[in-house]
Task: structure prediction
Amino acid sequence: MKRLLPHPLLTLTLAVLWLLLVNTFSAGHVVLGLILGWLIPFATASLWPQSVCIRNVPVLLRYLVVVTHDIVIGSFRVARLILGRPSSLRPAFITVPLELKTDLAISLLANTISLTPGTVSVLVSEDRRTLTVHSLDTEDAAAMVAEIKHRYEAPLKAIFESC
Amino acid sequence: MLELLLSVLILTGAIFTFIGSLGLARFRDFYTRLHGPTKATTLGVGCLLIASSIHFSVDGDLSLHEVLVTLFLFMTAPVSAHLLAKAALHLKLRSLTPTLKEGDDTPAHL
Result:
């Protein structure tokens, strides 16, 4: 089973991706998408050193909602900062200690931080223990670190690192 | 009614994209400038794509191309922002941001 279908999730994702690309839903395209989804993982196997495991689907869905919400709120906040006085900004580098271990989870955390307005992830330390984040307007760096850990890191840990 | 909704979405998208670009002109240093365009596009382009999706779905077939655009944008925008910021840190660009304290994860080893 494992040899015939190395990455079932990737297969499914690629099939859905194919349907979105052709922008039509028909039996023929579903089959073609599944065939592509089955073949491509073999060609790209070397790019997936660790197999991806996803647990806690409800947590994943809640995480997506939280991130979307933060993107919308953050966009308004950044828009206000841009239209306000740029000299009153308090930019800062903050260092977030990482509890995540897997590369996938760390890169997803860094991506989430960059996606939510007001923060950009700048550097992952070589030992993968800390993540440096640049924040546009910082009131309390410690509170910000706590929020990142609580809002983003904890759910990611529950989703990707509990198996 | 539909047209009103679409207009609101497109205008919101355009305004956010504009504000994002404005940030590029108004902010003073590289790191803060990075925030404007990368961020405003997420909501700005998001609104435009939702409008596009609704418009073409109502006209005829369901159109979900836009979901893909959003997906790819959300995957690539943070990566490019991260690489730009990392490069800036590597070059030790002059910035208004107080630099990291010694002993923190300084980019000194880079």
